[in-house]
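Quick one: co-fold with iron/sulfur cluster.
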Amino acid sequence: MDKIGIKDLTKTELEAKLKALGAEGYRAKQIFRWLYKVGVKSFDEMADIPDSLRHTLKTSFHITHPVLLDSKSSKSDRTTKYLLKLEDGNTIETVFLSESDRATMCLSTQVGCKFSCSFCASAPFGFVRNLKVSEILDEALFIKMKNPQVPITNLVFMGIGEPLDNYDNVLRAIRLFNDPDAFNIGARRITISTCGIIPGIKKLEKEGLQIELSVSLHSADDTLRSKLVPINKRYPVKELMAACKEYTEQTNRVITFEYILIKGANASSEDALKISKLLKGVKCKVNTIAYNSIRIKDYTNPSQTDIRNFIKILKDGGVNVTHRKSKGEDIDAGCGQLRISRL
Ligand code: SF4
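Sure, here it is.
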């Protein structure tokens, strides 16, 4: 019989399994603390668990942990990127961004990605598989153990993969991140970033979670957006905006639209005017970020003048916009870039 990955279980599920094995349910809380607070890699390290139960745990469950293949730390900011090998040999990336008031983990949700966004380093290598709950948690645990001096405050699903395409595992992982005996990260500090999977957005609005939703917009024009984010052919701008509006009405939460400014593609005054018109009356904010050149693409970064002009037009149109500085530019910190250099 295959052993169960113990980090794939919620605390309630682990309690039920322990009871079925003849152990006390309260042991689940102790085990959780060993796994997620201390970060043990074996049942033998669980000092307050009796020997007999440790033996039972070893025969029924296993503890996964990824192997570090590579890492890069930025010299210009406190961004570190890790390339991790999973148990089946596949690789994923995870990023840690430390700022003065927050420390954020940027997690992957899939090995590779199906969605082929034209500016993305993950896209050319296709999709392999979804990450399991335990593998998503392991990314966070890995970062936490590597950076014990910095309490992790925020978590974003913006690494490799589309989180709403691995919906059930991402939602289970979020509930585990919330658990006080695991990571104790509040839902409001967790962001799901999607390229615009409408059925996932509609499902998410019914979950009753206070998480942040961020949508990669990148253009108000269907022809251009379909080039940048090909899933737009299936979920075009008008339908996406209707789903986003419905999400804000149902959840009473502000939605964030991500906009990568790419010179010669979507960073003109005309593009800005279209966005400002599209977002009129939507409860939202916009994050612009300058394209962070990656070696496999021809796109280029916009100039400071292009950026200022774009933002001014949005602000003049009443849009709440913030320009974010790219993190880790010197270490290829965009999603998928370290994995590319290995592949
Ligand atoms: S940007 Fe996100 S959704 Fe698009 S290809 Fe890259 S990983 Fe996939």
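If it helps, The mean pLDDT is 91.
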